């Protein structure tokens, strides 16, 4: 978490020797998709909710070395009810109907963005280790 953050830091994954162990409140909804050997730190968070909004940190510590690499991703999830308020929201709701495609699109975009940032962070870290 950034220094001025009021959010509590909690672990989502613990990875070692190319094994990943989900932990904490995200355990039933998070899945490791990455491959450290390919410099890929992709994760998938399923059933995203508004209270999942926050700053996520990818922190890499290499055993036997003092260097620590951190990369931050901010995830903002808005509920369908909140998006529907106001004039612009009403237009949006009419154009998409009640099928929830906006929420699905937001989830997919957020997941791709998070995976890209984590992958880039892992790639930079592994390049520094060479």
UniProtKB/TrEMBL annotation:
Regions crossing the membrane: 101-122
Presence of the UniProt keyword Signal in the record: yes
Subcellular locations according to the entry: Membrane
Coiled coil, from the record: none
GO terms for cellular component: plasma membrane
Topological relation to the membrane, as annotated: Single-pass type I membrane protein
Designated name of the protein: Ig-like domain-containing protein
Xref: PANTHER family: JUNCTIONAL ADHESION MOLECULE-LIKE, MYELIN P0 RELATED
SMART domains (UniProt xref): IG (SM00409)
Taxonomic classification: Eukaryota, Metazoa, Chordata, Craniata, Vertebrata
InterPro entries (UniProt xref): Ig-like_dom, Ig-like_dom_sf, Ig-like_fold, Ig_sub, Ig_V-set, Myelin_P0-rel
